[in-house]
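Weekly puzzle thread! Below is a chain. First person to post its structure in token form gets bragging rights.
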Amino acid sequence: MNGATSLVKTMLASGVDTVFANPGTSEMHFVAALDAHPEMRCVLCLFEGGTSGAADGYFRMKRDVAGTLLHLAPGFGNAFANIHNAHKAGSGMVNVMGDHAIHHLQYESPLKGDTVGISQTVSHWTRMSPDAASVAPDGADAIRAARSRNGQIATLILPADTAWDAADGPVTAAAPPALRRPDDTLVEAMAQQLRQPGAALMIGGTALFGAERELAGRIAARTGCRLICDTLLARIAKGAGTTKVEQLVYPVTPKIAQMAEISTLILLGTERPVAFFAYPGKPSLPEPAGCAVTTLCGPEEDVGWSLQALADAVGASDADAPARFQLDQPAVATGEMSLAKVGQTLAALIPEDAIVCNEAITSGHQVLPLTTQARPHEVLGGTGGAIGLGLPCAVGAAIACPDRKVIALIGDGTAMYTLQSLWTMAREGLDVTVIIFANRGYQILRDELKNVGVNSYGANAQAMFDIEQPVLDWVALAKGHGVPATRVEDADGFAVSLSAGLESDGPTLIEVVCG
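Winning reply:
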């Protein structure tokens, strides 16, 4: 047994059975070990940003970690943006980053890089195995770290000689440490605060879906407090039957207005809200001056226990029925194309229990509102602000939940960052319907230029905002990656294409011309 085999056996013994991979020469012994264990699912991604984005989507739905296989420091660099997104989402993943053999690191070979340094900028846990005997216990420690604190980024650096040298048997990862819980005094104090006028309970993490969302709704019903959540969310339940929660908007000025009446803000499973960017003359924190902000439970703490303790403290019970979104599906839209009509048809046709991966950065604001009254589903969104998450996130979600329909809402500019994920969808036969909003530009940048006070611009700015000349052909791009595709320019065509995509068991793409 060599070090690589001991690591694969450690992963399997510890319940990690999926690896999103983009290997190189220094990882060949690990590839051979994976090949010898067909019970490990290996998913090839044609760009490292696809591996990390898929591992993120996998964790969000599975609530457990997958591995990634990355090629030295440059490979980790390619994966960095979506590792950053996963870090902000609170997703756990185990990155296996190959490196040169230890004796080879003294030479300035082309791929040599600061593997420890690049990992530590975004990983919660980093370790380089010093020898083959250490690989299995190091791998077990990495898995434990990735599962700790509700999900962390763990990166194990595997020098080539530690993979090929002789090693001992596998190690099973220990359970993660118990999550921190708030003390009873703080819980009681927050229960009293929630009963006061102007109180708001801001929830995040697992409190946004499942039984914990329901419990948060009962607390709000019992106390009369506002129930709110942040703008960028890793996962949230939407649609009919879900407990109503007010989501903060993206633009700073409306967000400030939205929070103007809040005098007490209690955070449970989330960080303090903050403006996405700084703008001249506008505050970074959107809550009003004098608002008392208290963290009852951070994102890395025991959210479920804290919610139950708070519910007990306020006296919430099954009799405290939360406000819910009601089923009120609109008719399928017809006639000329508009983003509102896309949203109308999506709300009409979205299947129950579907997973929507949303990276339609500007179009989504017009498409998604009606889905609150659609069949119950879940939405995975961008969290770290780095674009290129949506397509690989859909890959990971589809692999984690093969019995659920996945719909990816993606802007044409963002899709270009990780379009290789279409090939992985085709390769794996994933049930994903991709909707590309072809507005022919980075519309968000036009809006942001206005936000900093520039209301007109010339040829240079325009050249950096549009993606025309030539126009991207998403039907051709999709078919070139093995995914059937259609282009639609009216609402009737969109309804037909969406219905066909949802009826299919494999990937499809719809290019919506909306610019």
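Puzzle host: Confirmed. Bonus trivia for everyone else. The chain is about 40% helix and 15% strand.
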